[in-house]
Design goal:
Blueprint (H helix, E strand, L loop, with lengths): L6 E7 L14 E2 L2 E2 H11 L5 E6 L4 H10 L5 E6 L4 H10 L7 E4 L9 H13 L4 E7 L6 E4 L5 E5 L7 E10 H14 L6 H7 L4 E5 L10 H12 L6
Length: 239
């Protein structure tokens, strides 16, 4: 447990859904919107005290209606996202009114997150001397580093060791003061990354990677809805 440590969850859900062909967070997954699956699980954890959602300005009212309809009572703010994911998370951080110990960040479009992996990540951060804990999976396939030559051919430069590479998921959980300081410095420096932990790493933060879950997929295309439904129909524990 977190020994009365406060944890705020930020849920970025401002993506334009270009590859999906629409607002994927509202797409129905076994009868409920994708975002609601995410929020129900986050809200169900006793370790999460508050939830802040960042979304597009034109979606705030619709998200608020869903939050109310499904009784997601830990949501304290629904605010605008930004042009890029990093902007959305930073906007969420700016709406934290308290001074929490930890901040958990989880994609709104990862509806199959489990309560167990949320609490595992938080516990691992509380018990170590790391600044953040990130969930991920070791890669199964061989990796090739390539370049494009003058004739636009894809040419292999190197075959690095596969065991040195992991694919990163969310949730990611950080010490609040380290996270907000890193985002402030990144904003000042004009540094952008698609991964929250990379921002903390850039400014000297120590990040631990822990084993995630294969079913914790991100909804990117309509095919992902089908895959997610199959996982849900298997009634995976804790989902």
């Amino acid at each position: 447990m977190t020994d009365n440590k406060k944890v705020v969850a930020i849920i970025p859900a401002a993506g334009k859904g270009t590859r999906f062909g629409g607002d994927k967070i509202f797409s129905l997954l076994c009868g409920k919107p994708v975002l609601i699956h995410t929020l129900i699980t986050i809200c169900s954890s006793v370790m999460i005290d508050e939830i802040i959602i960042t979304t597009r300005q034109d979606l705030i009212h619709k998200v608020a209606e869903l939050v109310k309809a499904f009784g997601i009572n830990k949501v304290v703010a629904i605010t605008t996202g930004g042009e890029q994911r990093q902007d959305s998370v930073f906007n969420g951080l700016k709406h934290i009114s308290s001074n929490p110990d930890y901040v958990l960040i989880h994609d709104g479009a990862r509806p199959l997150v489990s309560k167990s992996i949320i609490e595992y990540a938080i516990n691992e951060l509380t018990q170590g001397d790391f600044d953040g804990v990130v969930v991920g999976l070791p890669l199964k396939d061989t990796i090739k580093r390539v370049v494009i030559d003058n004739d636009k051919n894809t040419v292999v430069v190197e075959t690095p060791k596969r065991e040195e590479f992991w694919s990163v998921q969310t949730p990611q959980v950080f010490r609040y003061q380290v996270l907000i300081s890193s985002f402030q410095r990144a904003s000042k420096d004009g540094f952008y990354s698609t991964d929250d932990s990379a921002i903390v790493e850039r400014y000297g933060g120590r990040i631990r990677l822990i084993l995630g879950q294969h079913h914790n997929i991100k909804i990117t295309t309509k095919d992902d809805i089908f895959v997610a439904e199959q996982f849900l129909k298997k009634r995976l524990p804790d989902v």
